[in-house]
Design brief:
The protein is of the alpha/beta class. It contains eleven helices and twelve strands. The longest helix is centred in the middle third of the chain and has 18 residues.
Amino acid sequence: MSEKLLEISGLRTHFFTDHGEVPAVDGVDIYIKKGEVLGVVGESGCGKSVTSLSVMRLVPNPPGKIVGGSMVFKGEDLVQVTEKRMRKIRGNEIAMIFQEPMTSLNPVYSIGDQIGETVRLHRNLSKKEAKQHAVEMLRKVGIPRPEQIVNEYPHQLSGGMRQRVMIAMAMSCDPELLIADEPTTALDVTIQAQILDLMRKLNKESGAAIMMITHDLGVVAEMCDRVVVMYAGKVVEEGDVKTIFKNPKHPYTKGLIQSVPRMDDDKDRLYSIPGNVPTPGSMPKGCRFAPRCEYVVSKCSEEMPDLIELEFGHKSRCWLQQ
């Protein structure tokens, strides 16, 4: 469990727009060990999804480009490998479940063709063998009547079924790393629970590491071993889940946890962090959370704090701890 499967160091992904260069991901360090479930959390616009797309080398270019850093996967730097090599890794060793299954599935191809395409590409199976493999994968992710569903099209399935199809596609080549970008966002609560149970089961059975991109702290508490908190393109806190929930250090993490509704709370209003995430093109000087922080001091607006280790594995980027 201690061996690092993926180590991202100093990753910088920028977008080149008419208004100038926009740093969406600005010097991010994240690692994930073999077989663990890592949660990456933060508000919309903090750089979570761009980080995951960078790992897959799927950032649209133009306008986006990885301009710095390294992403070492099993000893190989994904930033430096050729597109041909990346195609062999993508889907086979690293797979991704995208945020919205309706737009990620091709409406004109059957479910069987879309799952089968991955295994035909990476494992040289015949069309018949690929279809049989697709049926087995659909059965594995709990889809009823897989023999019929394999011939159906995305619009014929419910949201939960489509999300299961996406998981079946992602897991069809037994990847070592599965990146799940908001896998339960558009689903109702009962289907969410089923999808999370399914992912936990696949993690235990196949030993695949999972990088869970989410803004739902409930999902993190239930699923993850470790958590990385991102804000405005930077990691502001990281640690194991119990430590982060029991003893958050960064004011942003405290605010996120405070914002979660509680059943035993009789407050009239829910807590919300004041202000908004700064737009990537107009970052404040110093700590990026300073304009919204209740603990702000003069130094916060002048200089960016480093991400320092407070105790074993628990890191925070805040002047209060430095």
